Amino acid sequence: MTLAGNLLIALGALLLLLASIGLFSLRDALSRQHAATKAGSLAVACIVLGAGLVGGDGAWIGRALAIVAIVWLTLPVASHVLARAALREQAETIDRERLPLFERDDGEA
Length: 109
Fold this sequence. Notes:
Blueprint: H1 2-25, H2 29-55, H3 58-93
Helix pairs in contact: 1-2, 2-3
């Protein structure tokens, strides 16, 4: 179990490194966010599950699974909110009349 846990921790660290490289190499906010959230959520899951395996008993693994579930439930929502804010910020610089994707907050299209 310790070897599998250490391998998961190393894989998670490698995925976090790749996500950080994506943050610096990608051009726009949405691409950077995609790299951070997709690789980041998998990396956190690998690290936490690896720590649970290294911990050894069932309580550690149960806590690790709970943490992974919370991260996987909340990270997509946070990512969606950030993407929406980035798109709205970008849309304010573009003529809103030509961009039918967004509605104004006052209900007008």
